[in-house]
Amino acid sequence: MQNISKTCILVLFLIFGSIFCLGISCERVDAMDQLPQEWNDMENQGIKVIVKVGNKEFTASLLETETTAKLVSMLPLEMEMTELNSNEKYYRLPQNLPINTFSPGTIRNGDILLWGSNTLVIFYKTFNSSYSYTRIGKIDNPEGLENALGKGNVRVLMELEK
User: Fold this and answer.
1) Cis peptide before 142 (omega within 30 of 0)
2) Contacts of 39 (CB under 8 A, 6+ apart)
3) pLDDT tens for each residue of 64-103
């Protein structure tokens, strides 16, 4: 009888512990998923650039920060971007940029982020991530971005919108 009550207590502990942990986990993801208003409103403000991949052009909006000011000073920038994880392309910049890292939780198709202080990343799929980045900007309308970037390495030109 004593073994049965210990087993029942253990099962109840596991059930309530799991419910509690799931509640915390969901709250954490929701909080990480909420981006500052400036990030959501970038299409209406910020620095406009053109991202050219082959014959396809995408307009991107960059935040007005110290990091992007330094990046913009390097434009136009022709990059041989390397494929990584079937969801992103990256390019190591010739110089470090100032950083202000955050953990986005969810990376979105079209996000342009800085990993470390010199790796520019364009994401073409939405997924969850625990990595930290510095916000740069986002492709305003990423429809077709994955197809344009294709598989493998790709040449990308980023320049100020005229």
Assistant:
1) no
2) 63, 135, 138
3) 999 999 999 999 999 999 999 999 999 999 999 999 999 9
pTM over 0.85: no
What are 113's two structure tokens? 């982020």
Residue 145 near residue 58 (C-beta atoms within 8 A) = yes
Instruction: Please provide residue 4's backbone torsions phi and psi, each rounded to the nearest 5 degrees.
Output: -65, -45
Q: What are phi and psi of 19, to 5 degrees?
A: -60, -45
- Beta carbons of 9 and 3 less than 8 angstroms apart: no
Are 135 and 27 within 8 A, CB to CB?
A: no
**30, 51, 25: which is closest to 111 by C-alpha?**
51
Domain boundaries, the chain: 1-34, 39-160
- CA angle 96/124/85 to nearest 5° reads 75
One-letter amino acid at 62 equals: L
Residue 96 CB-density burial (10 A; 0-12 exposed, 13-18 middle, 19+ buried): exposed
**CATH number of the domain located at residue range(s) 39-160 in this protein:** 2.40.100.20
pLDDT tens string 108-120:
999 999 999 999 9
